[in-house]
Write a structure and sequence with these properties.
With about 200 residues, the chain is an alpha+beta fold. The protein has helices at about 5-10, 10-45, 180, and strands at about 65-70, 70-75, 95-100, 105-115, 120-125, 130-135, 145-155, 160-170, 195-200. Keywords: Membrane, Transmembrane, Transmembrane helix.
Length: about 200
């Protein structure tokens, strides 16, 4: 279908109109987006935020798996590292605990990484007849990999002993039980001792 010449002819008016639209439309969409963003931001402020700190030790997003044993709740506290993106994170990693009736977590075990850039995290904590803690640092090839340390904890006198050190790969070590981890291939990495545990 052939369009009329009046619709296909470039005129001075059509050039001016095109120039005006080219200049004004981006500003219009920017302004519209700004208005919508401000309104959405205003609505979010009325809701509780995960950024709100209930303790100086950690942000709520850092608190992970909880276990109950002998009248106490225990919880893992992870810190952000290359393997674990946490939007808000302090430098604290370790285990906190509280009595079952309490709502206030208290520091129990602090993981001190040496150097701090290792950023060890408590990937798994077992409570029961024996306490075990699996630490994994960020010294790996990415995608959750790192040097893992399986530690046995004596809760009677607050001491610990490293039982195993191996290279942790999430796809290989899906079964996180003590027996399977003890069977992992030993690592001779210097990162096997890049941490200490401090009991509070």
């Amino acid at each position: 279908m052939k369009l009329p010449k009046s619709l296909t002819t470039v005129t001075k008016f059509s050039k001016i109109l095109a120039l005006l639209l080219f200049i004004t439309l981006p500003f219009f969409w920017f302004l519209l987006g700004l208005i919508i963003g401000v309104r959405q931001g205003g609505m979010e402020k009325s809701c509780p935020s995960a950024d709100v700190r209930t303790t100086d030790l950690y942000f709520p997003d850092q608190l992970k798996t909880t276990h109950t044993y002998d009248g106490h709740d225990y919880a893992e506290v992870w810190r952000a590292n290359m393997n674990i993106p946490i939007r808000n994170s302090t430098s604290y990693a370790g285990i906190v605990r509280k009595t079952i009736e309490s709502t206030q977590w208290q520091e129990y075990i602090k993981i001190v990484s040496t150097p701090d850039q290792s950023k060890n995290n408590p990937y798994k904590f077992w409570v029961g007849d024996s306490f075990y803690l699996l630490l994994v640092d960020q010294n790996g090839g990415g995608s959750g990999e790192g040097v893992a340390k399986l530690v046995g904890i004596n809760v009677e006198n607050d001491t610990y002993e490293q039982l195993k050190c191996f290279y942790y790969v999430p796809e290989t070590h899906k079964n996180l039980d003590v027996g399977s981890l003890m069977a992992a291939e030993d690592s001779d990495s210097t990162n096997c001792d890049n941490y200490t545990l401090e009991f509070k």
